[in-house]
Design brief:
Blueprint: E1 18-21, E2 24-31, H1 43-50, E3 59-63, H2 64-71, E4 74-76, H3 84-89, H4 105-115, H5 117-133, H6 139-144, E5 152-153, E6 165-167, H7 173-184, E7 188-193, E8 198-203, H8 211-217, E9 232-238
Parallel strand pairs: 3-7
Antiparallel strand pairs: 1-2, 2-9, 3-9, 4-6, 5-6, 7-8
Helix pairs in contact: 4-5
Length: 241
């Protein structure tokens, strides 16, 4: 799917525990949780699973899907009926291994529901033109807007029952990150991570590194992609010997 699963994880073989960014070593510690319920408050989850692991100087990476589920921003497949435009657009979608992406017409229909029929048609035409004529990728998502690039779901590899849900991007991820940081006492970044790319969607004000460093530190997706139940990663700078 696009983005780490609602529960995170470490992938098929698992990334290395330590990753070096600009000469600095960072230990990544996945935190396993229970399977979150839709609209379940996150603060008690952090008290139970994260607080016992934290050390001074640590910062946290949280899967956007974890936040999305807590906010209830999910849509069940049963209420989605792919239309003609959705079925046409998916014919030109690039398919990636281990990532459903927008190859599922139902997921594309969710995007149309968010952005609107005409906006998605414009994104398809405009994005297709710039990709062929200018060799530039990503204009489809830039033109569509409305958080279309953050929509995830309908992935059979996701832990049940969330394999049957589409997940919208989290609402106000910066505010969510700040609320969680204030509660748990450690800086927080909310990310959309998968086996293709990582995007930092939100961050608390006290994050000790910039967003580019956050992205580089988890580019191999220690959150995972399937059913590992690790939607939170503690990141710890390793002091030089």
């Amino acid at each position: 799917m696009s983005g780490s699963g609602p529960t995170g994880g470490t992938g098929a073989t698992g990334p290395e525990r330590v990753r070096t960014v600009d000469g600095v070593d960072y230990e990544r510690i996945p935190v396993q949780t229970h399977l979150l319920h839709i609209k379940e408050p996150l603060e008690p989850v952090f008290d139970r699973y994260v607080a016992p692991v934290l050390q001074p100087g640590d910062w946290l990476v949280v899967s956007e899907k974890f936040v999305t589920i807590a906010q209830g921003r999910v849509i069940h497949r049963s209420v989605v009926r792919p239309g003609l435009l959705a079925r046409l657009i998916v014919k030109g979608v690039t398919k990636h291994a281990n990532d459903v992406g927008y190859s599922d017409p139902a997921k594309m229909q969710v995007a149309i529901m968010q952005a609107g029929w005409w906006r998605m048609l414009l994104a398809t035409v405009g994005g297709g033109f710039t990709r062929v004529a200018l060799r530039r990728h990503g204009d489809f998502y830039r033109i569509a807007g409305h958080g279309v690039s953050e929509i995830d779901g309908f992935n059979p590899d996701t832990v049940k029952p969330f394999d049957e849900f589409a997940m919208l991007g989290p609402s106000d991820p910066d505010a969510v990150a700040q609320t969680l940081a204030d509660h748990v006492g450690a800086p927080v970044a909310v990310v959309d991570a998968n086996n293709i790319n990582v995007e930092v969607l939100g961050a608390s004000r006290d994050l000790p590194v910039d967003r580019a460093t956050v992205r580089a530190a988890i580019l191999d997706n220690p959150l995972g992609q399937n059913d590992e139940l690790t939607p939170i990663v503690v990141v710890r700078r390793i002091a030089p010997a």
